[in-house]
Amino acid sequence: MHSQTAEKAYMEELLHYVWKHKMLPLGTLTTTDGRQVEVIDPGLHNRNAGPDFFNAKVRIGGTLWVGNVELHTASSHWYQHGHDRDARYNNVVLHVVSEADADVLTEDRHYLPQLVLQVPQQVKEHYEELLHADRYPPCYRIIPSLTALVRHSWMAALQTERLEQKTQAISRRAEQSQGSWEDAYFQTLARNFGFGINSEAFELWAQSIPLSAVGKHRDDLFQVEAIFMGQAGLLEPGSVPDRYREAALADGYLTRLRNEYLYLQHKFQLQPIDHKQWRFLRLRPQNFPYIRIAQLATLYYERRTSLSSLLDCRTVDELRTLLSTHVTPYWETHYLFGPESARSSKHLSQASADLLIINTAIPMLFAVGRHRQKEELCDRSFDLLEQMKPERNHIVTMWAECGLQADNAGDTQALIQLKREYCDRRDCLRCRFGYEYLRAAR
């Protein structure tokens, strides 16, 4: 039963696609009662409640109709879905089906003309290839033959889509912070300081910090670090791995930080997150939460986490300077509390800074531009992405092997969006490359 339902949904989705892109069979189209049909405009695809396509233009038996179109694999689904009792479907001018197994009536008791439309066999076969291909991405064969216009236009759309998606996440953070875009920026920056593995923990940690309260102690780096480490739950003895716990308990710096935090915790009624949120497995020492939090504490202390400082940056070099950070002297010889290590300044690497620019600074500029309706900020976001070298990761490598090269960070962001939002979901019917693949089947 489940497989039959899935098959029906799959066929209806493909029928929608054929109608939307006018992949119509050659020859004359006629309704079930013999009237000739000319599709002038298939209409606007509606993904919400109501008819499938709005404002379509179709000529039926010589009469031009402008209205909505509904599609089903079988006519009887009109009644199964209750459209005969729904006034929203009274302005449907054409019912498109794969199988006409019933006449259909609207809620105001009008019979609808019906067009039987079959999905071309080659289109169906190519779509099944996309859904079940072993190689990734499934459309790899068509990539080398795509025109530069097709590639560039789709990549530009994907780049914008990715920035819009990140804007939604930033806007939610601002909304959850009572409209504070300063807080939203700090939370976004903190999340990306997790560099994937600890991103969720870092965002949760940032949300736990009342920046308005911490700001009263911003001129004292030791107090800032005490609050930051304390809110992370990393000043509790139980947060240190067993093999280092004895050394940590004898660590005077940990003791001083913890005493300072207990005072500030009482003063501001702070509630730390659970230290078990942090992940250390297969993590390089320079990515340990202790180091990243110490770097963030320095950035905050030096007032380089403010939104105004970000908005003042106009070049990639200015952003790199803004996000350049290091650790306090204690962390130059430690990766966690207790055992000492060889001295290292632990500056944020340029590669890490560039990831923060791509995933935090640029999306924040775009989000603020959208929020304040300042196109200059949005345009600057795109310009900055184009100025940066392409990212190096397995997704970019995969597309390069298919013949799709990235020239800059804007391209790599588009390719990441393409894989995650389309390829991984096998959502080929919404993909321009998928469209070209299916179009080639005709």
Question: Keywords, please?
Answer:
seven-stranded mixed β-sheet, 7 strands, 50% helix, alpha/beta, 442 residues
Short characterization:
The protein is of the alpha/beta class. It has helices at 2-20, 77-80, 121-132, 148-176, 181-193, 199-207, 211-214, 221-231, 242-249, 252-268, 289-301, 307-311, 316-323, 350-372, 375-387, 394-401, 409-423, 432-439; strands at 29-30, 36-41, 44-45, 53-60, 63-74, 92-99, 114-116.
Over the alpha carbons, how many angstroms does the gyration radius reach?
Answer: 29 Å
The portion of residues forming beta strands comes to 5-15%
Oligomer: single chain
The stretches of 5 or more residues where confidence is low (pLDDT under 50) are none
State the separation between the terminal residues, measured CA to CA: 32 Å
Q: Write the H/E string, N to C.
A: HEEEEEHEEHHHHHHHHHHHHHHHH
What is the tally of helical segments? 18
Percent range for helical residues? 40-55%
Q: Mean of residue pLDDT?
A: 92
Structural class: alpha/beta
Shape: elongated
Major sheet: size, sense and barrel closure? 7 strands, mixed
Q: How many β-strand runs?
A: 7
What topology does this entry show?
Elements: H1 2-20, E1 29-30, E2 36-41, E3 44-45, E4 53-60, E5 63-74, H2 77-80, E6 92-99, E7 114-116, H3 121-132, H4 148-176, H5 181-193, H6 199-207, H7 211-214, H8 221-231, H9 242-249, H10 252-268, H11 289-301, H12 307-311, H13 316-323, H14 350-372, H15 375-387, H16 394-401, H17 409-423, H18 432-439
Parallel strand pairs: 5-6, 6-7
Antiparallel strand pairs: 1-2, 2-4, 3-4, 4-5
Helix pairs in contact: 3-18, 4-5, 4-14, 4-17, 5-6, 5-14, 8-10, 8-11, 13-14, 14-15
